[in-house]
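Sequence of Antizyme inhibitor 2 (Moschus moschiferus).
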Amino acid sequence: MSKLRLAEGLVGVSEVSIPIGNSKESKESPGSTWPKDLIALEPGETAWDMVLKKIKELSDSDCRDAFMVADLGVLASRHQVFCQALPRVLPFYAVKCNSSPWVLRVLAALGTSFDCASQGELEQVLDLGVAPSRILYANPCKPVSHIRFAALHGVKLLVFDSEEELIKVAQHHPGARLVLRLWTQDSDSIFPLSSKFGARLEVCERLLKSARDLGLAVVGTSFHVGSRCQTPHNFMKAIADCRRVFEMGSRIGHDMSLLDIGGGFPGEEGSDPEFEEVAGVVNAALAQNFPEGSGIEIIAEPGRFYATSVCMTAVNIIAKKAVLEPGGHRKLLYYLNDGHYGTFRVFPREPEPRMPIVVKELCPKPPLFPCTLFGPTCDAFDKLFLKEVQLPELDVGDWLVFPFMGAYTSVMSSTFNGFSPTSICHAVGPELRCLGEEEREWAVSSSHQDLNLLRGVGG
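Predicted 3D structure, token representation.
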């Protein structure tokens, strides 16, 4: 088996480090949420090395289950990139993107705050010792019981976009600090959201007055340009709209002090548009509409940006068919042990399929065939992608590795047809055993308890 070269910078060890203790596997106390699958990398070893080692081990047995490897060091490097590119913006990580306990612990220690969408996500973050002030309850349409939970546990930042939501909040969480979510043009995003959420500009004044009349405080605005935004200029228009709503709110009597620019930031290196381009547009829009010194706190809800490059998924070919199409063209059907009902559920919605890395010795230029990649269930729709991919002819038992699998994968997995979710190994290198001085001061001031949790002290 040859070690195939990944794109440079895909997986590596960050210069920012995280305290994780020194055991190969975390020792879990009763009731603890610490995962048992933390693996310490040896000096010079990478997560890709772990993938190849695991493939070799499984290939020598009859059990060749799919698996994922998460490189926690990537989280630290992504956090550093985000803060350097958007220095005025505080990240509130979108928990729904990847809710692994280790991912959340590392991000909490780095000083990020959290965007939660349900009581379950609120509980998960609060159980880590994160202060309620570092949580945004960002779902504009919430069950009453979840609103009451937020009130009981001191989570005050709540998003709304309708009068009906205001009435619920007034009854069950009158002390909330509300953020009005605006409708935003996002039709060209890969995953648009504005058909479901957001108030148009023409109704914002009425909503702000209704909040005032109900005795509720609106403290700011939010928007979301859609996940996988393809048009960075949409940030410019949305931020300008927010400024108009700030002016409305101030006239009505609200103390407007918080701007939430949402998510939509690309997660993969080399994406189109690139993160740096998006950050440039955002910084220009902020300088024009909310200049430094204006007293406005600016936050964002990055999810994909942090999580996408953290994970790789390795899948095994469990069955194969060769089909002759009209004209004598050969097509291959590969059946894999992970698919649409596992970690690939979101990918049929993407415009182009992702190309896997073939872990096999091949001739320099092997012939390629149109291939359909099926998952393991009995549903014919269980495909990894809607389109065919071009791959060499492979055999039952061969492995494919998909990089950039950290966002909206394990969180969307099911047990349909009795197939278990793909297991995840969390990897961390020796360089990540302690925080650098600058990061330590920031993280300690943000949440000293989070650092103790990561070190295994208390909790």
